[in-house]
Amino acid sequence: MRDLRGGLIRTTLGCALAGTVLLTGCSEKQEASTTLPTTAAAPTTETLPPLGPADFPVPDEARTKDAAGAEAFLRYWIDLLNRQRTVPSGEALRELGAECQDCLRIAGNYDAAAAAGERYVGGELSLNDVTAPLIDNDEAMIAFGARREPVSLVDANGTVLEARAEPAPNLSSGITLIWSQMDRSWLVKGFTLG
């Protein structure tokens, strides 16, 4: 019993002494550091070059060279077609589909309408069915169904010049995309709507 008590006393004194040393270390005056943390920016991932209209750029998720990126680009493209029809302007379509004949035709229609003071009313596109993209090296092909709402071309007075009064509920469509290493994005090589 005597050894147990002596060990207990030694342990208690040891803890008290250690606590005193620690507390004494905290009470000593410490000088302020004379160096400050660096103000240099932390390394970041490389930013993507701008692509698409400044107020409607191609989103980052559509700029990956994989199936998810190709499908995201298709969804962006449909939204871009809807947007540019209301402007109307074909510039963005030419930028993203310079090799696509149907894209250039649509862009020309939008530009001709703008030059004549005409505009499109309606005609919104939406995706129905999108197949998994088929990717072969730098190309992706996607088949999809698209719904087109009724559309009219009207002049500055609102007179209807051309109209498709009925919706097209499921246009059998497709897009071929090509990967641009320079733009780090998919671009449209071919596009068929209906």
Describe the structure in your own words.
With 194 residues, the protein is α+β, with helices and mostly antiparallel strands. Helices cover 35% and strands 27% of the residues. The protein has four helices and eight strands. It has helices at residues 2-27, 67-86, 91-96, 101-115; strands at residues 119-122, 125-130, 134-136, 139-148, 151-154, 160-164, 168-180, 185-192. Strands 2, 3, 4, 7 and 8 form a five-stranded antiparallel beta sheet that branches.
Brief description of this entry?
With 194 residues, the protein is an alpha+beta fold.
Percent helix range:
25-40%
The multimeric state of the shown protein is single chain
The amount of beta strand, in percent, is 25-35%
Reported CATH architecture of one domain: Roll
Uncertain segments are 1-26
- Head-to-tail CA distance between termini: 97 Å
- Gross morphology is globular
Give, in order, the helices and strands. HHHHEEEEEEEE
Task: Give Rg in angstroms.
Answer: 33 Å
The major pleated sheet works out as:
5 strands, antiparallel
Here the CATH topology of one domain equals: Nuclear Transport Factor 2, Chain: A
The CATH C-level class name of one domain = Alpha Beta
Query: What is the number of strand segments?
Result: 8
What structural class do helix, strand and pairing data support?
A: alpha+beta
Average pLDDT, to the nearest integer?
A: 85
What is the overall number of helices? 4
Attribute tags:
alpha+beta, Nuclear Transport Factor 2, Chain: A, three-stranded antiparallel beta sheet, disordered N terminus
